[in-house]
């Protein structure tokens, strides 16, 4: 966890130094000064939220082991667990999308569990196909995504497709849909802005 934190902090740390803002006196325009101060405050707030998310165990897509499964799924309101096989290409594809979403939705814990080493929960949750994404709210299963059928039936779906599907399950609350949501795999806006 400490290593994941260090990697996340390094990747997301903004160089918000006071030196960059010390020269505000050079600007005569009070509106510009106010705008710059507001931007600085927003950047600091975002950074602090990211740090708090890390402390809560969100903001990262991380692997857990079977003995920790119940603790993770019952100790947080919204949890998504990807049951995967390390040799399955489809699971690796889903991993890439979930990593992006974990950074975007800090109020959801995104986890993965190697199905080979989780026999009890694979049987208990009746997992027969991988990848298998199980969504929990307050410790209870609320939805599943099995394979890629609901994501277009192919492994070249957009992150937004998965995001929309998770939103329909009620685990994430999306802000207004905008073109180019910020995911590098979204070449175009595949949505008309409506929930389907």
From TrEMBL:
Reading the lineage from the top rank, the first entry is: Eukaryota
Region feature Disordered, mapped onto this chain? 1-27
What positions belong to coiled-coil segments? none
Give all residue intervals belonging to the Thioredoxin domain: 67-149
User: Acidic residues bias: where?
Assistant: 17-27
Q: Which Pfam family is an annotated match for this chain, by its short name?
A: Thioredoxin
Name the InterPro entries for this protein: Thioredoxin-like_sf, Thioredoxin_domain
Gene3D superfamilies in the record, alphabetically? Glutaredoxin
* Protein name (database record): Thioredoxin
């Amino acid at each position: 966890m400490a290593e994941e934190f260090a990697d996340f902090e390094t990747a997301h740390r903004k160089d918000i130094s006071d030196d960059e803002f010390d020269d505000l006196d050079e600007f005569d325009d009070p509106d510009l000064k106010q705008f710059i101060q507001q931007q600085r405050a927003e950047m600091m707030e975002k950074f602090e939220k990211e740090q708090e998310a890390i402390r809560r165990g969100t903001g990262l897509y991380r692997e857990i082991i079977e003995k920790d499964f119940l603790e993770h799924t019952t100790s947080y309101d919204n949890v998504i667990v990807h049951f995967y096989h390390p040799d399955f290409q489809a699971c690796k594809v889903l991993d890439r999308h979930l990593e992006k979403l974990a950074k975007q939705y800090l109020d959801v814990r995104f986890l993965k569990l190697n199905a080979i080493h989780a026999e009890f929960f694979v049987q208990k949750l009746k997992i027969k196909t991988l990848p298998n994404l199980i969504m929990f709210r307050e410790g209870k299963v609320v939805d599943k995504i099995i394979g890629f059928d609901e994501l277009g039936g192919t492994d070249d779906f957009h992150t937004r497709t998965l995001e929309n599907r998770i939103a329909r399950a009620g685990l994430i609350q999306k802000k207004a849909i905008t073109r180019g949501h910020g995911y590098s795999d979204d070449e175009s806006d595949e949505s008309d802005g409506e929930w389907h």
